[in-house]
Amino acid sequence: MFGEIDPVAGPLAFFGAELRRWRRAAGLSLEHFGPKVGYSGALVAKVETGERAPTADFARHCDEAVRSSARPERRPDHGPDRLSKPVTIR
């Protein structure tokens, strides 16, 4: 089904699922998040669903936007579900 994300389907799907989870936790719609990271909401949606691969710049901008928008307890760098080391998508 279009738009569904299976985070175990591979690294792109995992990245997309995490991006969607953090974007939603920050309370941002695609329409608001896209311009915040310098891309269209449509491109963000394609990355979230694994249709497009993120560039390093895209990932960096998303990280910055999520960290500045999310409540402290929901930021990726806070709490028990943070990653212990960076994830690289190749």
Low-confidence stretches: 78-85
| Helical segment count | 4
Which architecture name does CATH use? Orthogonal Bundle
Which bin fits the share of residues in helices? 40-55%
On the 0 to 100 scale, the average pLDDT is 79
**What is the count of distinct domains?**
1
CATH superfamily: lambda repressor-like DNA-binding domains
CATH top level?
Mainly Alpha
What percentage of the residues does DSSP assign to strands (E)? under 5%
Could you say what the CATH topology is called?
Answer: 434 Repressor (Amino-terminal Domain)
> Structural class, please?
mainly alpha
Computed CA radius of gyration, to the nearest angstrom: 12 Å
Largest beta-sheet details: none
Can you walk through the features of this model?
The protein is mostly helical and 90 residues long. It has a single domain (11-74), classed as lambda repressor-like DNA-binding domains (434 Repressor (Amino-terminal Domain), Orthogonal Bundle). It has helices at residues 11-25, 30-37, 41-48, 56-69. α2 packs across α3 (41-48). It is globular, with a radius of gyration of 12 Å.
List descriptors.
50% helix; 0% strand; mainly alpha
Describe the structure in brief.
This protein has helices at residues 11-25, 30-37, 41-48, 56-69. With 90 residues, it is mainly alpha-helical. Helix 2 crosses helix 3 (41-48).
